[in-house]
């Protein structure tokens, strides 16, 4: 069977499972996810053993320790995966929600109602936990999914998928609702990306290389973000304590997350105290600062920024820093160098903040708050499957609602069209 | 310049125009669209002349009369285009609408606000009116668009685009908000379809060949429908008068529209009067009926359906007809043969209707109403740019709201993440 035939067969079975999930309802979905969590706890020893084999093979193959860390499961992480599933099972079911209802003068009543998105392809690497958490989110929104993990985590993923399968079986839900695409055969990834009409959306979870490949090759729509080149703009109207706290937290709370700040922009009209204070706070916090000429004058520890720095996602304790001509300058800089992910302003002047929030065309824009709030849980969504910076369907943190679509129900009394 | 470079340059200019439109606001967009309508009226003679040349060239090239009819502009059609623009200018501006607002326990306030989708590619053929109406809808939702019409309508399209450009200029809006991609060079269409990240969505308007090519080749997301294989299911609980009226109107009001019924499904448990009455109503209305064995027994005028008929979009006074085992049989038939566009049930039994509306997974599902209501204006949207049967972003009639996306504004007081 060709890769396309294999994926086609799995996707058709998944499509059938979507109908089964719609019929089964909320309680069955919750029961399946909770039973999967239980199975993960029961099989913790198996998971540790599988992970040990994955890790040993990766180490033997010369994998870097940072990748090994993502791959590795320990008791705490296994419990984290199980309790994460219980969180998902406790979320409100989005399916069936009437988003909007209206009536036309001819008496026709319309209801826009939320339904499952359909068949979702998850392409991921390293972290085996994705096998459980992405599958649970898809399932809770009524979707079937094809999970394609990396071969480096194949043994851990297999055990986790068995636990999800056990959950589905316990709740009487179709096994085809969560299927594993065999790791190793790269052609299967290509077939998933080409499966227009069979797979409704692809969600990549992993490093930039994976996301870039998926975005470049996919014929199926993709929900993802490639870069998080996020900015904090400090307006002259900002107070120093707020600005320093927001900038330092945005950059340094965790430098490796996609919501981390990469560039700080400082109003050229800011007081010397404010401008120096913000830069010093970053440097004192252990962050290297690559500045333009104006920023270099503020602190001797600042080194010269290269042109490429404005387009660099450091994901490290390094920040680019520039002086800009007020909010207009900040908006222009972000327009040129941003990645439409998350950008923040620190300002006391509400009109300036409103202009920034209005004109910066990013998925998330914040006023006087850290960019590190770019996260579904912090938005109150309970959990997220990822952050999307595309412009269609879902933008920003993608949670259960982003994993649904809608249809329109029309109620008549025999109306015909003139 | 290569086709990709040409499209890249146009799309980047369009992206700049989107920011200009956001800044200009509702009144300017309305003024531009009204001024374009005015220009179309003023230049009616030029339009008639351009159309005459297009039509003569098409006729000389052996184009069919039905295509010539789509291509041709006359005084009434020109007035229709102008007044259509005025309708669009009168619609509520979707941009800026706060879709949802909420707060988190840490005091962060969230607003999901509607913004322009961005840069839209319209690929169309024959009907020159699309040049004005699609551009106006894109513009009213704050978008810039690249319009690529067919070479058969190039002269008419050019004059209409000049009118739109005059409208933009009169309202002080950027000329790059509506640009025409030169007709004739097929490579430019390929470049539009490949312009991932430059063009946000492609909307094809035209025949099935055009839509199929766009869907097959596009790397950019597409909003469209390929087929409208729509069903009306007549349940045993239906009353004959309603069933006959809905079925006949669904099929015969206009046979060439995508919302027309193509197949009627009749409950095997329906009374002989009901089943015969529905089939006779279609036949008496001038519709050929291709039936399965059961339907053939109902009326001697019914001819035998071929297997392919269940998957055929007739777009003509022809209907496929089958007996099915109740609502479950209808749902199964539609699942196998439908195109997820529009399907209706005629039933007196509300529980049966609810099951149909719940389980038939089409963009539009109706109870006791004609499938020909599948239209943005009939939904109360004022106008539509098309009907989408995909599952992402917008489903069913796509109007102004479907031409927007959203961002999240977050209001803080210095919050940082723990």
Automatic annotation (TrEMBL), chains A, B:
Its EC number is 1.2.1.41. GO terms for molecular function: glutamate-5-semialdehyde dehydrogenase activity; NADP binding. This is Gamma-glutamyl phosphate reductase. The keyword NADP applies. Catalyzes the NADPH-dependent reduction of L-glutamate 5-phosphate into L-glutamate 5-semialdehyde and phosphate. The product spontaneously undergoes cyclization to form 1-pyrroline-5-carboxylate. Keywords: Amino-acid biosynthesis, Cytoplasm, NADP, Oxidoreductase, Proline biosynthesis. InterPro entries: Ald_DH/histidinol_DH, Ald_DH_C, Ald_DH_N, Aldehyde_DH_dom, G-glutamylP_reductase_CS, Glu-5-SA_DH, GPR_dom. Belongs to the gamma-glutamyl phosphate reductase family. Pathway: Amino-acid biosynthesis; L-proline biosynthesis; L-glutamate 5-semialdehyde from L-glutamate: step 2/2. It is an enzyme of class 1 (oxidoreductase). It catalyses: L-glutamate 5-semialdehyde + phosphate + NADP(+) = L-glutamyl 5-phosphate + NADPH + H(+). Its main location: cytoplasm. It comes from Sandarakinorhabdus glacialis. Gene3D superfamilies: Aldehyde Dehydrogenase, Chain A, domain 1, Aldehyde Dehydrogenase, Chain A, domain 2. One of its GO terms (biological process) is L-proline biosynthetic process. GO terms for cellular component: cytoplasm.
